[in-house]
Specification:
Elements: H1 2-29, H2 32-44, E1 51-57, E2 60-67, E3 70-78, E4 83-89, E5 92-97, E6 100-102, H3 106-123, E7 134-144, E8 147-156, E9 168-174, E10 180-187, E11 193-205, E12 208-217, H4 228-233, E13 238-243, E14 246-252
Antiparallel strand pairs: 1-2, 1-14, 2-3, 3-4, 4-5, 5-6, 7-8, 8-9, 9-10, 10-11, 11-12, 12-13
């Protein structure tokens, strides 16, 4: 009987070690890169790398074209007299006024390029999170509206990270369907600020997922980004604006 007890205890110990090892392996395999890869796959269906996308945002028309590693990001602004057309590509920024190329000082060109890139970046998330300048870290898991999410931190290298490379983002990616439903970010420009966004009006155009956002602002800049989801759940964030992309058109190349 004594030997049976020892044998039984040994089996339990062995099984426990196996379970712990399996759990540890799964935890190691489940990293931020794999989660983001899955989110991009689900959101893009393989089409984001070879598509022309056009949409309207705050009375301006935006158009992007990506194919074989080349990209073209455009913005069209109409006023009473002129059409201003900004083009950001692999070779840099160009600005046109009524189809005529105009010279733009470097300092202004950087701000124009950042403005064009920023709108396209948010409109096509999570595509873009695999840029070479992006650093991703799995912070853990969290629950928002009774749904479980992976909490991913994103920071940027100075080289290739743009003028706002010191901005910090947190993305909440659904644990089951890998949709990017919430995000938060802290920025330093214009005095700095913190925002939390909730995706809504989710739709798919030619296999690519698009969303609009409720854009929230906390009362204090001392709040940690990863805690904003808790304040959101409590209704302690102020709705600042709505981020809406309208008239979305997609052509797969």
């Amino acid at each position: 009987m004594k030997y049976l007890i020892i044998l039984f205890s040994s089996i339990l110990l062995f099984l426990s070690c196996v379970e712990n090892k399996d759990a540890k392996t799964k935890k190691q395999d489940l990293n931020a890169q794999l989660i983001v890869d899955k989110a991009i796959d689900i959101s893009c269906q393989g089409n984001c790398d070879q598509a022309t996308i056009k949409f309207t945002f705050r009375d301006r028309i935006y158009k992007s074209k990506r194919y074989n590693g080349d990209f073209l990001l455009e913005r069209f602004k109409n006023d009473s007299l002129d059409v201003i057309h900004d083009v950001l590509s692999n070779s840099g920024l160009k600005r046109y006024k009524n189809d005529s190329l105009i010279v733009v000082p470097d300092s202004i060109a950087i701000n124009i390029g950042d403005g064009v890139n920023s709108v396209h970046y948010f409109a096509q998330l999570p595509y873009g999170l695999n840029s070479s300048a992006v650093h991703k870290k799995l912070l853990g898991e969290d629950i928002i509206k009774e749904q479980t999410y992976y909490e991913i931190e994103v920071t940027f290298s100075e080289e290739g990270g743009g003028t706002d490379y010191d901005d910090r983002f947190v993305y909440w990616i659904h644990k089951e369907n890998f949709s990017l439903d919430y995000l938060a970010y802290k920025y330093a420009t214009n005095g700095g600020g913190i925002r939390f966004r909730e995706a809504y009006n989710i739709r798919t155009v030619e296999g690519i997922r698009f969303v609009d956002y409720n854009n929230f602002k906390p009362l204090s800049l001392e709040i940690k980004l990863e805690d904003l989801d808790k304040l959101f759940e409590k209704g302690e964030l102020n709705l600042l604006s709505k981020i809406e992309t309208e008239n979305v058109e997609v052509e797969i190349l």
